[in-house]
Amino acid sequence: MEKALKRIHPVSDPEATYFLQVSWEQDLATGFFIILSDAQHAWTGTVSEAEISKEAADMEMDREKYLEELKKALILGEESADKYNFVIA
Fold first, then answer.
1. Count of domains in the chain?
2. Which helix (H) or strand (E) segment is 38 a member of?
3. Residue 34: CA atoms inside 13 Å, Cβ hemisphere, count?
4. What beta strand segments (E) does 17-65 contain?
């Protein structure tokens, strides 16, 4: 299993720091498990392959392009941090 851990500062609360861990088996396209933590609480979830396909279709985006954007937003390093905004609601 591969994992990526990223520190994020959501635009909804720029002073806050959250940690986002994404885990996947083969690659992101087959689905992934996500943990979001503020160092006091943690929230988990699973995103299935079908949910990825549905979201890409809902956004009228090619699935492969959608997956590339997911990788940039969720697992790439700090160099992509200023290109994606996170909102914690």
1. 1
2. none
3. 18
4. 18-24, 31-37, 42-48
Tens digit of each residue's pLDDT, the chain (89 residues): 899 999 988 898 889 999 999 999 988 999 999 999 999 999 999 999 999 999 999 999 999 999 999 988 888 765 555 678 888 87
Within-domain flag for 65:
yes
For residue 84, give the amino acid letter.
Y
Structure tokens at 59: 């956004």
- Asked if residue 58 belongs to a domain, the reply is yes
Both tokens of 87, joined, read 């909102």
Q: What pTM value is reported for the model?
A: 0.82
Burial 17-42 (b: 16+ CB within 10 A, else e): ebebbbebeeebbebbeeebeeeeee
